[in-house]
Automatic annotation (TrEMBL):
It comes from the Eukaryota. Keywords: Nucleus, Ribosome biogenesis. SUPFAM superfamilies: Nop domain (SSF89124). This is Nucleolar protein 56. Involved in the early to middle stages of 60S ribosomal subunit biogenesis. Required for the biogenesis of box C/D snoRNAs such U3, U8 and U14 snoRNAs. Part of the small subunit (SSU) processome, first precursor of the small eukaryotic ribosomal subunit. During the assembly of the SSU processome in the nucleolus, many ribosome biogenesis factors, an RNA chaperone and ribosomal proteins associate with the nascent pre-rRNA and work in concert to generate RNA folding, modifications, rearrangements and cleavage as well as targeted degradation of pre-ribosomal RNA by the RNA exosome. SMART domains: NOSIC. Residues 292-410 form the Nop domain. It is found in: Nucleus, Nucleolus. GO terms for biological process: ribosome biogenesis. GO terms for cellular component: box C/D methylation guide snoRNP complex; small-subunit processome. Belongs to the NOP5/NOP56 family. The keyword Zinc does not apply.
Length: 487
């Protein structure tokens, strides 16, 4: 059989014929050493066909398709024309990607190979490409590669800055780290200051208030009745403030030097600032989840939803997961241990922290976790693929989980999923149509200025397309959910 090697360059698709394929494959070490020598390599590999890209846009579309393992139309026509002219029946096509090879075999009917001598031949083609194709130079090939590389990278990293799930992943990781740090520092400040004022721990058990109180009181001997109002503002209770003043007068703590007090005050100030920053970060996470995944937020909450996105890697990855994977996301160790020991698999992972599972009975925890994972999967898909964010579906799905909880407890049969989803789609359509007047004026101004989006469509047209496409997407989710409810 004769071997042909497919090479995808920034300028187009190229096919190279390999002479004496069977003999070459037997001497693989010699091939590896002779790849860098153009004279030796040119005696084995010859250009058989070349299909240049028509434009930079066409090059980007073809390379994007190949990176996902899809055969683009230009490559399909090129391979069909080339192999239809060959009289030989047995031909093997060498490719770099096995996934692309499977797609080519299915579409064209040519046997593909990606191992053996093929990687070395491709390495040589890549090294000598400008000399193997007539009319090419190293400079022109480099310009084509640079232009395509820029556009390909730009297309891969392009995202909506207002709906970036990477910010959620970083903020929830920082929030978890802050929780650990604030808890550790609070314990340290309690032990440190309790040598001087041990009674304060029992009166003010809250970590944040204790740090603020320690920063304000400093030396307990200076604590007088004049500071009652300021102390009341810190602990938010008049009786507690008076108890602190009374305890300061008859405390059993040891005396402390000014230098030690200064260090305690600085550390307490740092703990207070960290606690305040943690609150601001929690508000930021809430606002970001409201923009990126409003339905998942409405269904399961800010932190649990953010942890699901973080564990999956992105909102798109979470949307691709089936409900069974979402259910045990975060409990991988327990799952593999159960599979290894042939014991019971875990019922839930990260979604265990949801309030629904805590409210369910012991017998129904597994059932409600399975149902909740199903709804989380639907909510994440809606958030990922809906162009205009809305929380209508999340609130509807949350109500469905509430109804299912009542069904487990009292036996009240919940409404069918089809009816609920129809109402949700109508509500989402009404919400999309009820655009505030200020936004309409902004759209008119942008229309007058000729503002268009990246695809060349006007903003008004794009919003109109989104409204038309919405019911189609919901119908898909609706059919899946119908099967889950009937089961």
């Amino acid at each position: 059989s004769s071997l042909y090697v497919l090479y995808e360059h920034a300028a187009g698709f190229a096919l190279f014929s390999v002479k004496e394929f069977e003999e070459v494959s037997m001497f693989l070490p010699q091939v590896e050493s002779s790849v860098t020598d153009i004279a030796k390599f040119n005696s084995i590999v010859k250009l058989a066909g070349f299909a240049p890209f028509k434009s930079a846009i066409a090059a980007l579309e073809n390379i994007n398709a190949i990176s996902e393992g899809i055969v683009p139309q230009d490559l399909l026509h090129f391979l069909d024309d080339f192999f239809s002219k060959l009289k030989k029946k047995k031909c093997t096509l060498g490719i770099a990607d096995a996934k692309l090879g499977a797609a080519i075999t299915e579409a064209v009917g040519v046997q593909c190979s990606h191992f053996g001598v093929v990687p070395e031949i491709l390495r040589g083609v890549r090294f000598h490409f400008a000399k193997l194709v007539k009319g090419f130079t190293d400079k022109s090939a480099g310009v084509a590669q640079l232009g395509l590389g820029h556009s390909y990278s730009r297309a891969k990293v392009k995202f909506n800055v207002h709906r970036s799930d990477n910010m959620i992943i970083q903020s929830i990781a920082l929030l978890d780290q802050l929780d650990k740090d604030v808890n550790t520092f609070s314990m340290r400040i309690r032990e440190w200051y309790s040598y001087h004022f041990p009674e304060l721990v029992k009166i003010v058990p809250d970590n944040y208030m204790f740090a603020k109180a320690a920063k304000f009181i400093k030396d307990r001997k200076d604590l007088t009745q004049d500071k009652h109002e300021e102390l009341e503002q810190i602990v938010m209770d008049s009786a507690k403030a008076q108890a602190i003043i009374d305890a300061g007068k008859m405390s059993m703590g040891m005396d402390i030097s000014i230098v030690d007090l200064m260090n305690i005050e600085l550390f307490a100030e740092r703990v207070v600032k960290l606690s305040e920053y943690r609150k601001r970060l929690s508000t930021y996470l809430h606002n970001k989840m409201n923009m990126v995944a409003p339905n998942l937020q409405s269904l399961i909450g800010d932190q649990v939803g953010a942890r699901l996105i973080s564990h999956a890697g992105s909102l798109t990855n979470l949307a691709k997961y089936p409900a069974s994977t979402v259910q045990i996301l975060g409990a991988e160790k327990a799952l593999f241990r159960a599979l290894k020991t042939r014991s019971n698999t875990p019922k839930y992972g990260l979604i265990y922290h949801s309030s629904f599972i805590g409210r369910a009975g012991l017998k129904n925890k597994g059932r409600i976790s399975r149902f909740l994972a199903n709804k989380c999967s639907i909510a994440s898909r809606i958030d990922c693929f809906l162009e205009q964010p809305t929380s209508v579906f999340g609130e509807t799905l949350k109500q469905q989980v509430e109804d299912r909880l009542k069904f487990y407890e009292s036996g009240d049969v919940p409404r069918k999923n089809i009816e609920v989803m129809k109402e949700a789609i109508e509500a989402a359509g009404q919400e999309a149509n009820n655009v505030p007047q200020s936004e309409k004026k902004k759209k008119k101004r942008k229309e007058a200025n000729g503002t268009i989006n990246g695809n060349g469509k006007a903003l008004e047209e794009e919003n109109g397309d989104a409204e038309v496409d919405e019911p189609k997407k919901k119908k898909k989710k609706k059919n899946k959910n119908k099967v889950a409810v009937e089961a």
